[in-house]
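Schema walk-through. Below, the input block comes first and the output block second. Nothing else is stored per chain. Lengths vary across the set, and this one has 129 residues.
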Amino acid sequence: MHEFMVECGKEAARAAIADGCTLVPIFGLTDKDVTGPDQYAEDLLGEVLERFSRPDTLTTVLQDWMKGRRAEVEDVNGLVVKVLEGQGEKAPHNARTVELATRIEAGTWNGVATTSTCCWGPRATTHRR
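--- output ---
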């Protein structure tokens, strides 16, 4: 899961740059740490997991679903897909996130996650720094 999250972040950082944004240092990063979108995404996720998350932390999307609300997956991950598609690039991890979230919200996903239902293969599921 960690690698999937990193890949979503890399796609998002690339989309931000493609959309004219500048990546800025946050969460304790410095200007010299911002070397490119891929490393930026890895570093940001590392900082969030290290400094701002606990084992029982629930994502905002999951919290929305638990409260019976729709999540903002289309507005966030869907935007990444649209921006990169506009540049002739793909965002397969964000597209898969949108697809699964849409199925969950429609009640059509059976809730069984396997490597065949996700776009990544078998990988480590823990965060390593």
